Amino acid sequence: MLITFEGIEGSGKSTQISRVVQALSNSGRDVIATVEPGGTELGMNLRSILLDSNTGSLDPLAELFLFSAARSELLFEVIKPAIADGKIVLCDRFVDSTLAYQGYGRGLEIEMVAEINRTVCAGVWPNLTIWLDLPVDVGLNRAIGRLNQNNSIEGRFEKEDVLFHTRVQDGFKSIAKQEPDRVKRVDSCESIENVSSKIIQLVNEAIS
Ligand code: TYD
């Protein structure tokens, strides 16, 4: 069972994933949480290239292949073995981020990005995707505030303009429309408690 969490910057994914881990562990489930890009040594190295604001702009195809390389390694080292062990895997971002950011955001051809996603995943696909939806300006302000507070250099995507993030948001919207059985929209403007109880309900339905 693979459950992914998607959304624009500042949509609250990491807070919600910790709550789901807690809820599932409390009910005796074997669960692991991982993150993209990251989760492996290669992934962490690629993360620092991809998210460091000092990296500056990259060729969109080069960016696509770096995210895909990080995912391929994560599948090989972490996700596939965990699924084989019968664990529930929660992943902070996955294939829909690539379609939304590199496809809709950067403007790469959608079908080509989708094909690379399928090739990298080779049969592993999310059983459920929680799309945390909130207005672009709200998410972006939250994310930029958090970066400043933590003195983080991971601001490469936050530096993109509102039009880029709006295209990414539209990407998530159209993915959710195309795959309503897999992708469930949750309004992330509500309180953390309300959002997490909705997510936990969706997760419980998917794993029961
Ligand atoms: P992340 O730390 O997940 O951002 P946040 O916690 O603010 O949501 O950073 C990941 C960034 O990488 C995010 O800006 C989206 C981007 N990204 C892509 O562009 N393509 C991808 O395939 C993935 C996985 C992430």
Mean pLDDT metric = 97
Helix % is 55-70%
Domains counted in the coordinates: how many?
1
Count of β-strands: 5
Identify the bound ligands.
thymidine-5'-diphosphate
Query: Could you name the CATH class?
Result: Alpha Beta
Which homologous superfamily in CATH is the superfamily?
Answer: P-loop containing nucleotide triphosphate hydrolases
Q: Return the CATH architecture.
A: 3-Layer(aba) Sandwich
What pattern of helices and strands is seen along the backbone?
EHEHHEHHEHHEH
CATH fold title: Rossmann fold
> Which structural class should the secondary elements be placed in?
alpha/beta
Determine the N-to-C terminus distance: 11 Å
Biggest β-sheet description: 5 strands, parallel
Number of helices: 8
Please tell me what the overall shape is.
Answer: globular
Widest sheet: strand order?
A: 2-3-1-4-5
pLDDT under 50 segments (min length 5)?
A: none
Protein architecture, described:
The protein is an alpha/beta fold. The chain has one domain: 3-Layer(aba) Sandwich (Rossmann fold), CATH 3.40.50. The chain is built from eight helices and five strands, in the order E-H-E-H-H-E-H-H-E-H-H-E-H. It has helices spanning 13-26, 41-51, 60-84, 95-105, 110-121, 136-149, 162-178, 192-207; strands at residues 2-6, 31-35, 88-92, 128-133, 183-187. It has a five-stranded parallel sheet with strand order 2-3-1-4-5, with helices on both faces. The longest helix has 25 residues, at 60-84. The relative contact order is 0.21. Thymidine-5'-diphosphate is lined by residues 9-10, 13-14, 36-37, 51, 67, 92-93, 97-98, 101-102, 143, 157. Thymidine-5'-diphosphate binds next to helix 1 and helix 4.
